[in-house]
Design a protein that fits this description.
The protein has nine helices and two strands; from the N terminus they run βαααβαααααα. Helices cover 76% and strands 3% of the residues. It is globular.
Length: 232
């Protein structure tokens, strides 16, 4: 019989922000608020771009994709963290940890690639304005987004996963947790305000979209009253 190590890791203990029970409701409320702001803020951008034909341009097409990626990026970690805070449990299974790491690295890399594409788009708009609409045609825009996706899988994911699994931590655990919060929660929450919600075109599209929704009710009621009078 051969001797060997049959030790198997079935679960990990996640790092917490505080061990004090009285602080847990405050931390839960803070991260829940930030997560909801992130999701609804980015959804508003996607709604505005998709509903207004004037925003069907390369710049806003990339912004809508960035908003979608930000929602996915923050959703890979924050919901699990909220559940752990609420249940007072820091356990995550090995399978869940690998799955979470995969999607975390996937959307983090995709976020970077889309920002690069957006920078290229602005470069063409500023340096080659007369040829901009010819160069940035719908086919090229779709191709750039597609290339950003399959690149993050082939280049970023494999190398980053190897670094995460093989490198030793060189800094304190709490400082690392604080730094991770900045780019996993705070940055996706601020992106809608930085890139879009302060934009006049986005504001106009949102007002137009919500204006239509609020007017549908009175118009429908008026039509019903008119039909009733005609029948009478």
């Amino acid at each position: 019989m051969e001797l060997g190590n049959d030790t198997q890791i079935s679960e990990f203990l996640l790092l917490g922000f505080s061990e004090e029970p009285e602080l847990q409701p405050l931390i839960f409320g803070l991260f829940l608020s930030m997560y909801l702001i992130t999701v609804f803020g980015n959804l508003l951008i996607i709604l505005a771009v998709s509903s207004d034909s004037h925003l069907h341009t390369p710049m806003y097409f990339f912004l809508a994709n960035l908003s979608f990626v930000d929602i996915c990026f923050t959703s890979t970690t924050v919901p699990k963290m909220l559940v752990n805070i609420q249940t007072q449990s820091k356990v995550i299974t090995y399978e869940d940890c690998i799955t979470q790491m995969y999607f975390f690295l996937l959307f983090a890399g995709l976020d970077n690639y889309i920002l690069t594409v957006m920078a290229y788009d602005r470069f063409l708009a500023i340096c080659h304005p007369l040829h901009y609409m010819v160069i940035m045609n719908p086919r090229l825009c779709g191709l750039l987004v597609l290339v950003s996706w399959l690149s993050v899988v082939s280049l970023f994911y494999c190398t980053s996963l190897g670094v995460y699994l093989s490198s030793a931590a060189t800094q304190s655990s709490h400082s690392g947790a604080t730094a991770s919060v900045m780019y996993t929660v705070v940055t996706p929450m601020l992106n809608p305000f930085i890139y879009s919600l302060r934009n006049r075109d986005i504001k106009r599209a949102l007002k137009k979209s919500f204006g239509k929704e609020t007017m549908k009710g009175p118009i429908a009621l008026g039509q019903l009253h008119l039909m009733a009078e005609l029948k009478a």
